[in-house]
Write a structure and sequence with these properties.
CATH architecture of one domain: 3-Layer(aba) Sandwich
Helix content: 40-55%
Number of strands: 7
Structural class: alpha/beta
CATH topology of one domain: Rossmann fold
Largest sheet: 5 strands, parallel
Shape: globular
Order of helices and strands: EHEHEHEHHHHHHEEHEHHHHH
C-alpha cells in the first residue's frame, strides 16, 4: 500500500488518475474513508485508514496495490503507512504558486461561511487598521475569483449561473452589513465607502481577504514543514518535475510503487491540460511574477511566514527560487 501526502493544488487529481490506470495500482483521491467518500464524510483515523488499505490488498490476494493521495495532510499518515510496510511520499510545489491557487479557489467559500465570519471577532482592531490600504482594495476588485460575475461569461449554462451569482451577492452583502455593525461599531461610521462588485465594502472586504491569505500561508508552510522534517529526499516529489518529466515520474513515483515498471506505461506526452486546476487568474505566470502581482501586505505576510516556519532552505534544496 502507499500514501502520497499533499494539501492539494499540486496535480493530485491528475496523479491519482494516472496511477489508477496502471494495472497493478488503485489510487483514491481526496478521501479519508474506505470506501472512498468525500473528505468530511465517514472520516477514519490514520490507523483505520491504513488498515483499510491493507485489507483491500489482502482481499485482492495482493494482486493489486491500494493507496491514496490528498486527504490527510502533512505527515499525518506517515507513521501508520510505513509501520505496515507501505510506501509514503509527499508532493511539494513552489509555495507562492500553491498559496495563490488555494487562496483564490477558496476565497468566495470562506467569505460566505458563517463559521468563518464568527472567527473574525478574534481579530484585533488595531491589527485591522494597519492592513487596510488602497492596494489591497484594488487587488480585490481585480481578482477574477472574487468577482462572481466572471461565472456568467465562462459558463455554458448562463441562466443558472446568473441566479447563483445573485444569491452569492445577496449573501455577501448581508454578511458585510452584519460585520460592519459588529466589528467596526461607531468608530468607523464616518468611514467613506467604495463600491466593489456593486456593494459597499470599504473595510470589510480587505479584512476578510487578508485574514484568508494569512491562513493559506500558514497551512501550506506548516504541512510542507512536517514533511520536510520527516521525509528523506527520495520521498519528496517536486510537482513541477512530476508533471513535466516522464523520466522523473518513472524514477521517483512508479519505480517506488511497482517492481519492474513498464517504461511504455507513460506516453511521451503524458502531461495534459488537465494537470493544473485553473483556480487562479494568474495561474499561467511563474512564481516570481505571481509574487510581484501580490499587494505589499501579502508579500509581508508570506515572508514573515517563511521566517516563522523556517522552510526557505528546504524549498531551495529542491531547486526552488524563494
Amino acid at each position: 500500500m502507499f500514501y502520497i501526502s499533499s494539501l492539494g493544488h499540486s496535480a493530485t487529481g491528475w496523479l491519482s488518475s494516472i496511477l489508477s490506470e496502471h494495472p497493478d495500482l488503485v489510487c483514491f483521491h481526496g478521501t479519508r474513508s474506505i470506501p472512498p467518500y468525500d473528505s468530511g464524510i465517514f472520516d477514519m483515523t490514520a490507523s483505520e485508514f491504513a488498515d483499510g488499505l491493507l485489507q483491500l490488498e489482502m482481499n485482492c490476494r495482493n494482486k493489486k496495490q491500494f493507496g491514496a493521495c490528498h486527504g490527510f495532510y502533512g505527515n499525518y499518515l506517515k507513521k501508520d503507512i510505513e509501520s505496515r510496510g507501505g510506501k509514503y511520499m509527499a508532493i511539494v510545489r513552489h509555495p507562492v504558486k500553491r498559496i495563490q491557487s488555494i487562496f483564490e479557489s477558496k476565497l468566495l467559500n470562506c467569505l460566505t461561511r458563517k463559521k468563518y465570519m464568527k472567527g473574525l471577532t478574534r481579530i484585533k482592531l488595531d491589527f485591522y487598521n494597519k492592513l487596510i490600504d488602497y492596494e489591497t482594495l484594488k487587488y480585490a476588485e481585480e481578482s477574477k475569483i472574487f468577482n462572481p460575475d466572471f461565472l456568467i461569461n465562462n459558463s455554458k449554462i448562463k441562466s443558472s449561473n446568473i441566479s447563483l451569482i445573485k444569491k452569492i451577492k445577496k449573501k455577501l452583502y448581508k454578511s458585510y452589513i452584519e460585520l460592519n455593525h459588529k466589528l467596526l461599531s461607531f468608530k468607523y461610521l464616518n468611514s467613506e465607502l467604495i463600491d466593489i462588485n456593486g456593494y459597499k465594502s470599504k473595510k470589510l472586504v480587505p479584512l476578510l481577504i487578508i485574514d484568508h491569505f494569512s491562513n493559506c500561508c500558514d497551512i501550506v508552510l506548516k504541512f510542507d514543514l512536517e514533511n520536510f522534517n520527516e521525509c528523506d529526499s527520495s520521498q519528496l516529489l517536486v510537482m513541477e518535475e512530476m508533471t513535466t518529466s516522464r523520466e522523473y515520474f518513472m524514477d521517483k513515483i512508479l519505480s517506488n510503487l511497482v517492481n519492474d515498471p513498464d517504461k511504455y506505461f507513460l506516453p511521451d506526452d503524458f502531461q495534459t491540460k488537465e494537470v493544473y486546476n485553473k483556480h487562479s487568474k494568474i495561474s499561467k505566470l511563474d512564481a516570481e511574477s505571481t509574487y510581484e502581482k501580490w499587494p505589499q501586505i501579502f508579500k509581508h505576510i508570506y515572508n514573515a511566514s517563511l521566517k516563522q516556519y523556517d522552510t526557505k532552505k528546504n524549498y531551495v534544496s529542491l531547486g526552488y527560487k524563494i
